[in-house]
Hints:
Helix content: 55-70%
Largest sheet: 3 strands, antiparallel
Structural class: mainly alpha
Number of strands: 5
Order of helices and strands: EEHHHEHHHHHHHHHHEHHHEH
Oligomer: single chain
Shape: globular
Mean pLDDT: 90
Number of helices: 17
Amino acid sequence: MNFPHHYKSPLTKCEIRIDGKVYDVTYWRDKHPGGAELLDKFHGSDATDAFYALHSEEAIAKLKNIKSYSLTERPIPREELAERFNQFRMQLKADGWMERNWIVDAVQVLLPCVALAVLGTLMCQYSQLLATVMIGIAMQQAGWISHDYCHGRGLASKIIGLLLGTLINGMSPAWWSHKHNTHHCFPNRQDTDTDIHNEPILHLWFPPKEKDHTSRRFQHYYCYVAYSLLYVSWRMQSIQFVLGSRNVIERALLVLNYLWIAALPWKVAVGSMLLGGLLVGVIVTSSHQAEPILKEGDKYNYCVDTFTTTRGMHSDSWLMNYLWGGMQYQLEHHMFPIMPKYRYPKVRPLLKKFAEENDLPFKVSGLAEILRMNFEVMKRYSQ
């Protein structure tokens, strides 16, 4: 989704709770990197968990420059479960779970992705099929890695996320941040999370009669074709976004990406985008779309909503785990988005224990089960 630059807030004032204070972010909303609309969604609510999950230490430090009130002046409640989760997250942070091991990053994360892109480009003159597979997987992995680093802390993470996202994938990290951070704050919430809105191509609920399409009855058959077009759609939205922004750096990097794409044989260029989109599309939909869809009037709780609407995947296959790019730990990622993805396997048992202690659902399934569930939900809403 592309949040339009002409978004005008319907609110005359925007106040949110973070920790023990209520902050007036009315005049900050237009400068908010995640978009003004996201702040408006939290007006009059507790945003503590979402704020700490998604913001850097620098952003957290800026709170002191924003006008605030005591809770006695602006009483916005906070639930006990939210406070228990915040203590759990703070303990993990104190124990070093959020810190990166740059040697592991370089060897296990960055090198394989860049090598696939380079070797795939060189392979074009020998085997276009093999080149397509290598570049397609490189594009998929660049998406996961850019996603991971854009969530990360520090200038180095932001630069790496920017370079991989633009140079290999041709996508705007700034556009992605607007779209994806909203998904993190409001997963599967029908009125807010655009990740579950793919109408009129795919439907996760029965549409109103006036917006229905004959093609819906076949969506469980053609959904994988639609998934393969995901990267094409995201590229188009990124172009639209950067053309409407003043981000000269992203524009220049996207130009370099398209110069690379233009230098590839057209079958490799098109095939790799479709393959990368398919691999990502299957995974990003598998984690949420078969889970409960929350309505506008449903009570909001960052912790409860995320556990309720998110499913992880388990596999003993090295290749399958590599292709999933850390997103097999979807719940772990949603609860701790700044945590490096190679720490997720060890944090999963801790998160499961937290879920059991707080009567929260903890959903992990094998690949076959997840694919079956997603096929069934596509079929259910095709009737």
